[in-house]
Structures are given as C-alpha cells and as structure tokens.
Design goal:
This protein is α+β, with helices and mostly antiparallel strands. It folds into three domains: 2-43, no CATH class; 56-121, no CATH class; 140-255, no CATH class. It is 40% helix and 17% strand.
C-alpha cells in the first residue's frame, strides 16, 4: 500500500504510519529500500512485562562490541545466526545466568537468550523517531479512525447491498468518494472544490440547482457518470450520503424528484 501511495502521489520520499497490527520486518526493509520511512510499532508477543519480568527493551545493545548488556550488567555475546521465516536472526547469551540474583525476573530457562534481526537498526531508528515525536501515533488515530468511523456510521454497520467483488468495490469506492467530497467542502468550500475538480479532470461536472422543495440536476457525464450510474441502488445511496442523509431510508418528499 505504501508503494502504491508513493506512486500515486509521485513523491520521491514518503512517511508512513500504521498501527502495530501491520508490523512486518520484511515489509519494513522493503519500504526502507524504496525510500519510504515507515513507523509501525512492533507488537509485544511475550507476556513477561505483565509478569514483572525483564523484556528485550531492558537489554542495551552495543553496536561496536556487538553485545547486549543485561539489567545485571553482564554482557551477552554473539553465538550464531540462523534463518527464521526468511529473516536472518543473530542469537546472544552468556553462561553465568544460573548464579545471577536477578534470574527469577529474567528467565525460567538455563540462560536468557536475545534474538536480533540483521536489520534491527531500522526498528531502533523507528522507535527513536517515536520518542522524538510522541504524537505520531495520536496523529494516525485522529487521521485514520475518523473516516472509518464516519463511513461505518453512514452504512449503518450492516452488510454491503451489492454482491460480487466488482460491485462491492464500486459501492465502497462511492462511500469513500462521498466522504472525501464532504470533507473537502468543509475545508475549502463548494466553489473552490468544483474549480479544482474541473481543472484536474478536464471536463465539466454536473451543475446542481435548488428550487423550493425540488432538487434537479443534469445527468452526469464522463467518469462521474460511470461511477454513479453503474447501478441505481449505489447511485441513490451515493446521492444521499453527499447530502448527509441516512443511506438506507427512502428519499423524503422535500427532495422531490430523483436526478434524471
């Protein structure tokens, strides 16, 4: 998705923020190679923190010595490298854990072992960015969750009306289009939006005129007609959403005739 967004925006570099559910080391590396700065927190799969035990973040890595320092001050040295799920991981430990006073809070095994991905520096740089900008994830939530919640409320949290993937994609695209149009109207106004759309698309958009008790509009032309008139059910839902009305109820008498 990040590569497609970069291509659509025609940007040389791109900053991407996602929640921890999207974390994937291989994809993080791919984004780095493509000039995309991805911020995706790594999920904690271990329950040690809840148990009051040490987690990997409590072990400090020394890049020059290639060792980890444990909470007790001991050095965990490199032992071997092996491949796991297509990624190369390095393993570190030391042999004095059995006599350590903190062993009960560290591991239940013979020694505590730390695994390091060969490109772990990308994850460390990501967490450094998050420390420098604590509002990164808050910005993601306020930017992404709002459209999701709004569109879900419009749809009534029910199933799509259409069937088959092609039709469902069209229905969802119209929901997103309606949201974007209403959002831009709130931000820049109707006049500025129509001018920008006309300049970008290169064709005349349908004019809408209001009469007392009647909505009348010209038949859409070009790409807009293709999207709106694909099916009558989707077209009617789209028109209602852009007017801020519930998607499922019938047209009220105050709107008058349907667009022809």
């Amino acid at each position: 998705m990040a590569k497609e967004a970069k291509s659509a925006l025609k940007a040389g570099k791109l900053d991407v923020i996602a929640d921890r559910g999207y974390f994937n080391g291989a994809e993080l590396l791919t984004c780095h190679k493509d000039g995309i700065t991805a911020t995706v927190p790594r999920p904690e799969t271990s329950g040690n923190r809840k148990k009051g035990m040490f987690v990997k973040a409590d072990f400090i890595y020394d890049a020059e010595a290639d060792t980890y320092t444990c909470p007790a001050g001991k050095a965990l040295t490199y032992r071997y490298t092996r491949e796991e799920r297509g990624l190369m991981h390095r393993r570190y430990w030391q042999n004095d854990c059995q006599h350590c006073r903190l062993k009960a809070r560290c591991t239940t095994g013979k020694e505590r072992r730390i695994t390091r991905w060969e490109h772990e520096h990308l994850i460390e740089a990501m967490y450094a960015r998050m420390d420098e900008t604590p509002d990164l994830m808050r910005t993601r939530r306020s930017t992404v969750e709002h459209p999701f919640g709004t569109i879900k409320a419009w749809m009534g949290a029910t199933h799509f009306q259409m069937r088959r993937m092609r039709n469902v994609r069209t229905e969802m695209a119209l929901h997103v289009l309606a949201y974007n149009i209403k959002r831009m109207i709130n931000m820049i106004g109707v006049g500025s939006l129509l001018k920008a759309m006309t300049a970008y698309a290169g064709f005349a958009w349908p004019s809408v005129r209001r009469k007392p008790g009647i909505w009348a509009c010209e038949r859409p032309r070009g790409p807009l007609r293709t999207g709106i008139t694909r099916t009558n059910a989707i077209g009617r839902r789209f028109l209602r959403l852009t007017r801020g009305l519930p998607a499922r109820s019938a047209f009220p008498h105050s709107l008058g005739r349907k667009c022809r």
